[in-house]
Each structure stands twice: as C-alpha cells, then as structure tokens.
Amino acid sequence: MFDVLYLTLSAVTWAIVGYKARAWFHDRANVDLGLTALMTAGVPVVFLFSAPRVYRAFDRLTGVANLAMVFLYSAVVLFATGATVLLLRWTSRGDEAARARAMARSRFAVGTVGVAWAAAIVCFAVGRPDAVEHPRDFSTAYADAPGVVAFLVLYLAIFGVSLAGLGTLCPRYAAQLGRSWLAKGLRTLAVGCWLGLFYCLCKLVGFVLSWGGHELYWLSNGVAPLTASVAAVLVLVGFSLPAAGPRAAAWRRLRRLQPLWQDVTAHAPEVTLERRWSGRWPLADLEWRANRQMAEIRDIQRAIRRHVEAATLDIARDKARAACLDERSSAAVVEAAALRRGLANQVTGYVPGDHADSVVMTVSADPAEEHEHLARVADVYHHPLVDSVLTEMREICAARRP
C-alpha cells in the first residue's frame, strides 16, 4: 500500500515540478521561478525514496543500509534551503542596497545549512549501530543511537526553521494581494508549511517519548509521514496556483464562451482572427484564446448596435426585475436579449429609428469581472426569459405594421 501511495504522489508531484520547470525555461531571467523549480524538485524525490521497495532497492544497489534516508532528507533540506533563500529575496524588494543585503544573507543561509547538513551526514555515517533496513521506522529504531539522533535533530531544525519563516511570511504577503491567484497560492503554501511543522512536532515528541521509554510507533512512523505527505502536496499546489490558476480560469471561461462565440461569429466571420492554436495542444494559449473570443464578441455587439431597438433593453430590464434577478444576472439577461435581437434584425436588414445607445452592459473596470459577465451572458443566451423578451418585441413590431 505504501509503495503505491508514495509512487503515485511522486508521479503527481513530478508533473507539477515539470510544469514549473517548463515555465522557467520560457522565462529564464526569472530567478525566483528558477529557484522555485529547483527547490520543488526535492518533493517528488522525497516521495520516491519514501516507497519502501525503492528505499530497499537503492540500499541494495549502493551496499549501504539506510543510505536512502540520507537522500530522502537531503531532498527535504534542498527544499528548505530554497525556501529560505526565496524568503530572503521576497523580503528584500527595494533599492540596490536591500538586494545586496539579501544576497549576503542568502549566501550565509546556504553556507550555514550546508555546514549543518554536512555535520548531520557525518553523524549518520558514524552513528548507525547496525545494517538493518528501516524504511518506515528509522527515527524510532535508532532512538538510542546518539549519532543518528543528532542527524535527525539537525534535519528537523533546518526543516522547521525554514517552514516557520515561510509560513509566517506568506499570509502577510497574501493580505496585500487581494483575491488574486498569487494570494491563494501563498495561503495554500502557508497551510502546507504549518502542517509540515506539525510533522516536525510529531517527530520530536516521538523522540522524547522514545528516550523516556514510552514508544508511540503510530505517532512517529504513522501520523508524521502521512502529515508530511499532505503538507508536501499543499506546498507544491501553493507554488503552482499562481500560474495554473489563471489558466484553469481561462479554460472554464473559454468553455462557457464557446457556444456564444460560435453563434455570433457565424453572422460575421470576418471579425475572427486566424486560429493560431489550431493543430496544437488544446491547452495552449488559453488566456489569449479566451480574451480573443471576448474581443470578437464585443466587436460584433458594437457593429449591431444600430439594429437593436431601445425598447428591447427596457423590456428585458422589466422582465428581469419581475423575475427578482440580482443586478449582475439582470445585466446578463439584458445584454443577451439585445445581442439576439440585433443579430436577427441585422439578418433582415432592419434598422429601427430609436436604436439603443449601447448594447454592452459594463459591470466593472476589472477585465476579470468583464470576462465573468460575458460568460454569464453566454449562460443565459437561450434562457426562456430572453426568449420571452424577443417574443414580445416581435409582437410589438407585428402590431405596428399596417
């Protein structure tokens, strides 16, 4: 069971790391992104060596019992060191002097961690009392071996300090960013860091109880590693959300706009640009495609304004008010009714004398809000309420004919 669990998590996290690395390859001047890709690469390595079968196979290959644990914890230290450097870079935004201080502190942090971890590995090398494999109970099996305990304590100290710093800073930055995807990513990252600290606490409590002769195997070797696994996934998700979130939102918006876009551009195919994404990966250029669809719909709306009677908007507002719709839903219904009426009149060539001043219901200066509004228009484009508006307009026009 543990092999399947950890290998699955390793595969998932390798995919996330690959996504971050791909983003960095397209923006190599972004030092923070490169550092993030490097440090997060430690997480799937942790999961890989956490699988007992891989752990034992690696030790058989090297001929050194429990050496896989050194590689496993070294991957964690790589993440912790990267997080510390990233933390220092985040807190030094400003003038050249601030950046210079951050560089000096980063070098000091990396040097300190390097010395401490080298000492920990020496402690591991001289402190193992036997050659028995312990992929799942390493910390409790060697609770009486001073060298291994020193190795574990140094590991937890390095890991815990970096998690505490990152977990404290992330919510502080997130509070300044509103409801952005970066803020959501930082908050998710902070949850992962605090959960990681709980893992460290479980390990330390397990040490103390083992030294006192009260072994709690389930705490050190059950709760702690599973907690660390969940924390690692949350940390990776937190790092990925700022890039993946907008793309996921663009994909949802694209799916919602697609039917409306296809319907309105069928009346004016000349406004559509060449589909530069055709024949490519379907998830490529999501944001560009969603923005392009919205722009093309807006172009058609402006072109048909003179074909829309002002009465269409008034009737739609009255019906939306009678249906007790909120302001945003009402705006979507009015715009959908005006769009359908304008396209129908354009086909017949009818130009009313009292045409609408505008058929675009602007709800916000925020582009994201405008995108969401147009998606709501797509949702209600064929709603019965909109159908009733168009039916009433046809009846009014029929009654006016001699």
Radius of gyration, taken over Cα atoms and rounded to an integer in Å:
30 Å
Q: What is the molecular shape?
A: elongated
Low-pLDDT parts are 276-281
Task: Return the structural class.
Answer: mainly alpha
Question: What's the helix count?
Answer: 15
Mean pLDDT over all positions = 83
> What separation lies between the terminal Cα atoms?
81 Å
Multimerization status: single chain
Helix content: over 70%
Please outline the major beta sheet. Answer: none
Order of helices and strands: HHHHHHHHHHHHHHH
Total beta-strand segments: 0
- Beta-strand content: under 5%
State the gist of this model.
With 402 residues, the protein is mainly alpha-helical. It has helices spanning 2-25, 31-40, 42-50, 52-62, 67-90, 96-127, 138-141, 146-174, 181-211, 217-265, 286-303, 310-322, 327-348, 367-380, 384-400.
Which keywords apply here?
402 residues, 15 helices, mainly alpha
Structure description:
By secondary structure, the protein is mainly α. 76% of the residues lie in helices and 0% in strands. The protein has helices at residues 2-25, 31-40, 42-50, 52-62, 67-90, 96-127, 138-141, 146-174, 181-211, 217-265, 286-303, 310-322, 327-348, 367-380, 384-400. The longest helix is centred in the middle third of the chain and has 49 residues, at 217-265. The chain is elongated, with a radius of gyration of 30 Å. The protein starts with a helix and ends with a helix. The model is unreliable at 276-281 (pLDDT under 50).
